[in-house]
Each structure stands twice: as structure tokens, then as C-alpha cells.
Design brief:
Elements: H1 29-39, H2 43-53, E1 58-62, H3 74-92, E2 96-98, E3 102-103, H4 108-120, H5 130-154, E4 165-166, H6 170-186, E5 189-199, E6 204-205, E7 211-229, E8 237-243, E9 254-257, E10 263-271, E11 286-290, H7 294-300, E12 303-312, E13 318-320, E14 333-338, E15 351-353, H8 359-367, H9 409-420, E16 423-436, E17 444-453, H10 469-478, E18 481-483, H11 486-497, E19 501-502, E20 504-505, E21 516-518, H12 528-541, H13 544-548, H14 552-555, E22 563-565, E23 569-570, H15 572-577, H16 579-583, E24 596-600, H17 607-619, E25 626-630, E26 633-634, H18 651-657, H19 660-669, E27 676-677, H20 680-703
Length: 709
């Protein structure tokens, strides 16, 4: 037996059913995904053709246009992926889905980039023709549309990419102007002179959505307004105001008070001693201030001791401007006006009122029967020549290394107040101050003629049926579905409280307010034939035609000398708010209104609202049946992403290292309605989840080896 060979061991693998699949364990997504996308390049068109052939019900998702300015960021990736989930799920449920991606192309950010390019070449904007400048803007936007389109397609987003829309397309510009003409014809448009947020650096009015707030260190002044009419006039008493904008004092026309606040005259008996400077207050001064603010005023003015003399009722009191002794220009009376916005939480309980430099000031001035709004500051942020003592001085610097910094105006006003003997105290205060979101420079409220759409005047058109735009918009909000429901309250509160819609901008790159204004009546020319010629020219050659063609080519038989050609451009929110008009209306295989708008929650102030107002004013309802919103994308610590913080995460980096499917899986796993966190650790967890999903699928596919029905 020792010589017998050992029996051969049997290979039992042939007797066992083992999983078998060509589906690989390793995904290799950065390499594999482009191959898959290339194979399915025409998937969207094929799906639509198949659905239309069998008469499937239509579902319309209208794309909120991203701005054509820079590569896509992680917020873009989340938003477009969520939209892709909607598109694919609706297709899977048997719908014919219309989704046309689009871009917002006009406006200040692109202008600012072109101005930067010109400055780098040693050229000023005013040295470049408007035609050349607009062509540069158009080329810049076109370049980024292609970059962003490639980024979105790499994310695997299905859509009609070959027929994308852009607000700068000639047909789009013509449609935007046609929508604007509807407001002109219906009488909802008017030119008003009121204070608007103005960027002297960019030389344009700004919308609320273009303003952000940053901490700013401002000078503060306590200023005496001598009483000239009222019981306290004989006692040489002065009303004391406090402000963080001394430069607005030349525009002062009134002082606001509240009948709910207790005021009194305080007589100075002694000043602090041992100071490094001579205080401006002195013994014997009689100062009128709110009781609640008296202690703070005494501390600021270095008053050691004073006594409360008597109660004061400011009603009917009249003061003299604090600069009146230096120039007769300021010799007008300064009345006391009852204002609901006045509190005694800060300052002196009185509010210096400059109707040309503040919304509350402006409204209070009008409410008391005044109509003339003083203009004191020009488009470059300098006092106009007629402003006595200060003509030509800069409030804000607009050129050179100091651009965006406050100029000499504040200091000059304070020096003149000292000379007039009416500066009581001064200091510094760090507070939140409005800045342009593009230039990051401070903005000012400045009185300037602008064009507005009325929110609260009843309009007798077939669309509004005698209602106001605000009433119509609020009714449309009530009829719209919101996901999540909290979005309804958010946009409703904004529409309830918003002022008239400021739609004009003093810039070059945009769709124009293409209309003529009668120089005698100051009213827009309303003539369907003139409007038709304007729209036809823009459809053929773009908005440039409005700026280059002579007025005669549009006016027909009207005398060009009688009409002013308006060359302001439309607010970009009006542009994007009109996209429904040329993306959903007039196209085959879609419909108006859209089934769904889907954007970030910030668009309740932006695109959701501008689309609502534009459509409500021209069609009497919202351009959507439902609105879905998602939160913001933040870093792993819940902090806002910022390049300066170094906590940003670029989609291109994630795709190059791990593949787009990892980003898509992250988007599917987060609660879109809340702010979403993302970072390397979170993506590592997402990648691990992807591996588990992939290996589970691989095992299931392998288990089907050899199976047939």
C-alpha cells in the first residue's frame, strides 16, 4: 500500500453555484463616468420623443438661471442634482418632462469684471464706446455659459442642453423688453424721485438683493439745532440729535420725534475737569433730549452736572439748521415732525431727517405734505456744486487706492459744525452698514430719479381686474404649493412689506428700459407701433440696437426733439423674472405655467419673487404651481463657505478624485430643506456608503448568473 499513489483531491468549485458578474468591484468613476455620459448623450431627447409618441402627461420644471460668471460651485452642484432627481423621477413615473437649462447674463457683476479688465489695460470705462463695452460683456458671459454647461453635464444632469436659454440671447432681450412694455402700457410704471441705495463706486442704484451688510466703523456726532419757535425759543434751548452719517446734515430738512417719548430741557451746571481737550458744551447750555437718553448724552458731552428744568412737548416746535450762521443757504426753518419710526433705544430720542438720504426720512417728509426732495450728492458720491460750504467734496472715494473709502465730507461737516458752535460731542461706532455685494464698497442712500413699478395702485386690466400688484401677488402666493410649507410665510411676509419695485439701473450691460418720455408731460410714450418697432429691432440685432439706432427709426411720425430716449437698463431681477415669458410661452412641447420652480431659500427675495411680481403684473397669477426650496451648503462645522476662510470645496475637485456619483449620492442623503454640511470627512462617509451599495448590487447581479425567464 505504501507504493500506491495518493488519491487526487477533487475541485468542488464546479459543483457550487458562485456569483458571477462582469460588474467590477472597483468603480473607477472618474474614468468610467465620462464613458457612460458619452453613451447616453442623447438620453433626454430619446426619453422625450418616446413619451410624446405615446401621449404621456407633461411635467414642466423651469430652470432658475445661474449667473454666467465663474465656474460652478458646490451650491450649484446640489441644486442642479436636485433638479435632476426631479427630472429622472418624473420620467420614471411616466411623464414627458420639459427641462430647459438657462443662464442669467446681464448686470453689474459682469460689468465689474470688464471694468477690472479695462483698468488692468490702463483704460477707463468712459474711454470705451458703449458698443465695445457691451460686446466685451457678451463675450465674457458666453465663455462662462460654456464652462458651466460642461460642469453641469459632467454631473450627469439631464436636460435640453442643445436648446438652452440665456437672457442675453437676442430673442430673450426682445421678450424682456416686450414684458417691460406691458407695464408701461398698463400704467403700472412711473418715474419717482426718492432715495435709493446707491453705489458711487459702481455708479448705479442697487436692489435689496445686491446689498450685504458688514461691520463698519462710523463717526458719530451729537448736534445742536437751536429752537426758534416754541416755548423754549426764549431760553436759547437746542434740540440735540445724534447721527452716524454727518455728511447727510447739509440735506437735513426736519427733526422727527415721538409723542410716546418723554422729553425735557436739561441745563448744564458744570463740565468735567482734567480733560485733554476743551469740551464743546458749557455751563448754561440748555439742551432738549429724551429723558431715557439724558445720561448717555451727558457722558458723551463730558457734562459733570446738570439739572432737569422742565418737560417738553416738541409738537409745533421749529428749529434753525446748525449751519445757518455760516451760510444763508441753510437759512430755512427745520420743523419738528411726529414719526412712528422714532424710539429712545439709542441716540437722543430725536431723529435727524434728510428726505433725500433715507427711506423713513423720505416717507415722513411726504406724509407731512412736503414734495420737494433735496438733491445733495451726485452719482460719483460727491456734493453737488450748489451745496453751500461743501460743493465738490467726496462722501465716498471712487478712484485710486482709496476707492470705496469714505472721503473728506464727514470731517468737513464736523469742522463746520464746530465753527458754528453747534457740535456737542463726537465719537466712533462699529455697526452693521450696507455694502455692495460686488465691489464690497459702502453704499449710500441717495435721492435720484428712478423708474418704479407700483405695488399699491389698483389697475383695471383683464389680468389685475382692478386689484393692486401687491394684492394680486399675495393671492397668487395663497394659490401656490410650497415645499417646505414654511416658504409660503417667508415670501408672503416679504411681498407684504416690500416697497415699489425699483427697476432702473444706470449701467451699460443689460436689457434697456426701451421707451421714450415726453419732455413736456414727463410721461412715457404709449404707442403699439413704436413698441413693435423697438422689439423687432432688438429681436434682430439684440439690445445694442436700442443704444445705436437713432430715435427716428423707432418714433415714426413723432418729433424726436419732443421725446427723451431712456437709456437706463432694467434691473437683472426683471430679466430673470421674465424668463417664463420666453422659455415656457411660444415653445413647442411645453406649457405655461410651470409645474415647479426649485431654488435655494434665498430666492424668496430674488427669483421666486421677481418672477411672481412680473407674472402677476402681466398675467394676474404666478408663473408656477409649486415652489420647492433647499437650504445653503456649509462646511463641516456649519460655517458659511468662503474662499478667504479656505473652507470651500470645488465640485471639479470631488469629481476628479472620486466621481460625480459621490456628489449625487451626498445630495440624495442630505435633508435638502435644511442647510447641508459637506467636507472631506462627510464625503469619505459618502464614499464608504457608495462602496456598500455597489458591492451589494454586485452580489445581487452575480446571484443572477445563468438566470433566464
Amino acid at each position: 500500500m505504501a507504493d500506491d499513489a495518493a488519491p487526487a483531491s477533487r475541485d468542488y468549485r464546479e459543483t457550487v453555484f458562485l456569483p458571477d458578474t462582469p460588474f467590477p468591484m472597483r468603480a473607477g468613476l472618474p474614468v468610467k463616468e465620462p464613458e457612460i455620459l458619452a453613451r447616453w448623450e442623447d438620453l433626454y431627447a430619446r426619453l422625450r420623443a418616446e413619451r410624446q409618441a405615446r401621449g404621456a402627461p407633461l411635467f414642466v420644471l423651469h430652470d432658475g438661471p445661474p449667473y454666467a460668471n465663474g465656474a460652478i460651485h458646490i451650491g450649484h452642484a446640489l441644486q442642479k442634482t436636485l433638479k435632476d432627481f426631479v427630472v429622472r423621477s418624473r420620467f420614471a413615473l411616466g411623464f414627458d418632462v420639459d427641462y430647459v437649462p438657462g443662464w442669467d447674463c446681464h448686470g453689474l457683476p459682469i460689468e465689474w469684471k470688464i471694468e477690472e479688465e479695462l483698468r488692468a489695460q490702463g483704460r477707463r470705462k468712459d474711454e470705451v464706446s458703449k458698443a465695445e463695452f457691451r460686446e466685451r460683456c457678451r463675450a465674457y458671459a458666453a465663455q462662462w455659459i460654456e464652462v458651466q454647461k460642461a460642469g453641469f453635464k459632467r454631473l450627469g444632469v439631464l436636460g435640453d442642453w442643445d436648446n438652452r436659454y440665456a437672457t442675453m440671447d437676442y430673442a430673450s432681450e426682445a421678450a424682456i423688453v416686450a414684458e417691460f412694455h406691458k407695464f408701461v402700457v398698463s400704467g403700472q410704471l412711473y418715474r419717482g424721485s426718492k432715495p435709493v441705495m446707491w453705489s458711487p463706486v459702481e455708479r448705479t442704484a442697487l436692489a435689496d438683493a445686491e446689498v450685504e451688510y458688514h461691520d463698519h466703523n462710523s463717526p458719530t456726532v451729537w448736534v445742536k439745532f437751536p429752537v426758534v419757535e416754541g416755548p423754549q425759543a426764549a431760553d436759547d434751548a437746542s434740540v440735540v440729535i445724534w447721527t452716524t452719517t454727518p455728511w447727510t446734515l447739509p440735506a437735513n430738512r426736519a427733526i422727527a420725534f415721538s409723542p410716546e417719548i418723554a422729553y425735557a430741557v436739561y441745563e448744564v451746571e458744570a463740565m468735567e475737569t482734567g480733560l485733554d481737550f476743551e469740551p464743546w458744551a458749557k455751563a448754561g447750555d440748555r439742551l432738549i433730549v429724551a429723558d431715557a437718553r439724558a445720561a448717555d448724552l451727558a457722558a458723551a458731552a463730558k457734562i459733570a452736572r446738570w439739572r432737569r428744568v422742565e418737560d417738553v412737548d416738541p409738537s409745533g416746535m421749529v428749529c434753525r439748521h446748525p449751519l445757518a450762521a455760516l451760510d444763508d443757504h441753510y437759512g430755512f426753518a427745520v420743523p419738528m415732525l411726529d414719526g412712528d419710526h422714532v424710539t429712545d433705544d439709542a441716540g437722543t430720542g430725536f431723529v435727524h431727517t434728510a428726505p433725500g438720504h433715507g427711506v423713513d426720512d423720505y416717507l415722513l417728509w411726504l406724509a407731512h405734505g412736503h414734495r420737494e426732495i433735496p438733491e445733495t450728492v451726485d452719482a460719483d458720491g460727491a456734493y453737488l456744486p450748489h451745496v453751500a460750504l461743501f460743493g465738490g467734496l467726496k462722501v465716498l472715494e471712487t478712484e485710486g487706492k482709496k476707492a470705496g473709502k469714505f472721503g473728506p465730507a464727514n470731517g468737513a461737516v464736523m469742522e463746520k459744525l464746530i465753527e458754528a458752535g453747534n457740535l456737542l460731542a463726537r465719537g466712533r461706532l462699529e455697526h452693521s452698514y450696507p455694502h455692495s455685494w460686488r465691489s464690497k464698497a459702502p453704499v449710500i442712500f441717495r435721492n435720484t430719479p428712478q423708474w418704479f413699478i407700483r405695488m399699491d395702485e389698483a389697475v383695471d386690466t383683464p389680468e389685475l381686474k382692478g386689484a393692486t400688484l401687491r394684492e394680486t401677488a399675495l393671492k397668487a402666493i395663497a394659490a401656490t404649493a410650497f415645499y417646505p410649507e414654511a416658504g409660503r410665510n417667508r415670501i408672503r411676509s416679504m411681498v407684504e412689506g416690500r416697497p415699489d419695485w425699483l427697476i432702473s439701473r444706470q449701467r451699460a450691460w443689460g436689457a434697456p428700459l426701451a421707451m421714450f418720455v415726453d419732455r413736456e408731460t414727463f410721461q412715457p410714450l404709449v404707442d403699439p407701433e413704436v413698441n413693435r418697432r423697438i422689439v423687432a429691432a432688438i429681436a434682430e440685432r439684440g439690445a445694442d440696437a436700442w443704444f445705436t439706432d437713432p430715435p427716428e427709426s423707432f418714433l415714426g411720425g413723432y418729433d424726436p426733439a419732443r421725446f427723451e430716449k431712456v437709456e437706463d437698463i432694467l434691473d437683472v431681477w426683471f430679466d430673470s423674472g421674465s424668463t417664463h415669458a420666453f422659455t415656457l410661452e411660444g415653445r413647442e412641447n411645453t406649457r405655461w405655467p410651470a409645474d415647479l420652480y426649485l431654488e435655494g431659500s434665498d430666492q424668496h427675495r430674488g427669483w421666486f419673487q421677481s418672477s411672481l411680481l412680473e407674472s402677476a403684473g402681466t398675467r394676474g397669477r404666478a408663473p408656477y404651481d409649486a415652489v420647492m426650496t433647499h437650504g445653503f451648503t456649509v462646511d463641516e462645522n456649519g460655517e458659511k463657505m468662503s474662499k478667504s476662510k479656505g473652507n470651500t470645496l470645488e465640485p471639479d475637485t470631488v469629481i476628479r478624485e472620486s466621481g460625480a456619483e459621490i456628489l449625487r449620492l451626498w445630495a440624495a442623503m442630505v435633508d435638502y430643506a435644511e442647510d447641508q454640511r459637506i467636507g472631506k470627512t462627510i464625503l469619505a462617509t459618502t464614499t464608504d456608503a457608495y462602496r456598500k451599495l455597489r458591492n451589494t448590487l454586485r452580489y445581487l447581479l452575480g446571484a443572477l448568473a445563468g438566470f433566464s425567464e
